[in-house]
């Protein structure tokens, strides 16, 4: 962090502010959290001689891809026709950036970054397994469980996601709609599989322990 501040490689972002990330650079969240979004050009009627500026302003479909929390690295990959974007999810989110060859100055830190990327890859495999479930309610519960396992904060009855997440964002992540997510969230609450903690935060209660005799 000292090196990043001395070389002007650190910046603080407000909630929902887009982070100007680009491929080939390693980013590290020092404080707060970012959310990753995949945007794709929507398929519309083909019109002749469409200018580049008009194409960039065409409507896009966005899908929520997950969070990157404090202490975690991330990298942006551009793959047409998808555009990976990142936004500060909470106020005072601080991000530093380095070129890959900068990491050669700190071999131990470089190993930690690579280990973190391997861990993220393993989590994405679990995410894909969750999205492969046929029933929407199973995808929803699996998605919330993975998020809270990774980013959850403890409270008296279990763990909760300390950041807000709209039903529309959840729906985009699991391939469903906001209305369906709202209905299924109500069903999961009735079954006691999820709870609402504090100011609307999503929580998953811990399994009850048997009483000692």
List the topology elements:
Layout: H1 2-6, E1 10-13, E2 25-31, E3 33-41, H2 52-56, E4 60-69, E5 73-74, E6 82-88, E7 93-99, H3 107-131, H4 136-151, E8 153-155, E9 158-160, H5 167-174, H6 178-190, E10 195-197, E11 201-205
Antiparallel strand pairs: 1-7, 2-5, 2-7, 3-4, 3-6, 8-9, 9-11, 10-11
Helix pairs in contact: 3-4, 4-5, 4-6, 5-6
CATH superfamily of the largest domain: Jelly Rolls
CATH class of the largest domain: Mainly Beta
Tally of contiguous helical segments: 6
Number of domains: 2
Helix vs. strand class: alpha+beta
Strand order of the main beta sheet, please? 1-7-2-5
Which spans have pLDDT < 50 for at least 5 consecutive residues? 44-59, 208-213
In short:
The chain has 213 residues and is α+β, with helices and mostly antiparallel strands. It is 34% helix and 28% strand. Residues 44-59 and 208-213 have low confidence and may be disordered.
